Amino acid sequence: SLTTRVEELAGSIAADDADLKAATEVREKEAADYMATSLDFGESLDALDGAILVLKKKSANLPQAQEALLQVQALKLVPESSKQALVAFLQQAQPAVEEMPDEMLSYQAPEAYGYEFQS
Questions:
Q1: Minimal CA–CA distance to 90: which of 53, 51, 41, 57?
Q2: Shortest CA distance to 75 belongs to which of 29, 34, 33, 37?
Q3: How confident is the model at residue 39 (pLDDT cuts 50, 70, 90)?
Q4: What are the pLDDT digits (tens) for 42-86?
Q5: Torsion, CA 8, CA 10, CA 13, CA 18, rounded to 10
Q6: Between the CA atoms of 57, 63, 69 and 70, what dihedral angle is there, to the nearest 10 degrees?
Q7: 43 near 75, Cβ under 8 Å?
């Protein structure tokens, strides 16, 4: 009968409304998680950009570069393998002066003399 059909449709609408409400709650939680993750990634990228800039100026200030890398290492979303690589890099000692190439090696050879015509 018509009354039974209306009751079925009303029940279906109520179930759909409950499903919609549950899906909306899940979506809101996922959106909040995404925003938090996106913010953390953004901070990580900013820290990496800063670390790269510091490393480019490394010859001027090594302790500042180490501090920037320590900050990157402390970030939550940096993979453990990357953190271990940063620790290994920071623990490397700078080469001793004796290990540096001799300044004489950076000079270029003099230009060779070619045959000059003599008449």
A1: 51
A2: 37
A3: confident
A4: 888 888 888 777 776 665 556 666 677 777 777 777 777 777 777
A5: -100
A6: -160
A7: yes
Sign of CA dihedral 23, 29, 34, 37: negative
Indicate the angle between helix axes 62-73 and 80-91, nearest 10 degrees: 160
Q: What are the structure tokens assigned to 91, written together?
A: 């623990």
Residue whose structure tokens are 């979303």: 77
User: 3-state secondary structure string, the chain?
Assistant: CHHHHHHHHHHHHHHHHHHHHHHHHHHHHHHHHHHHHHHHHHHHHHHHHHHHHHHHCCCCCHHHHHHHHHHHHCCCCCCHHHHHHHHHHHHCCCCCHHHCCCHHHHCCCCCCCCCCCCC
- Sequence length of the chain is 119
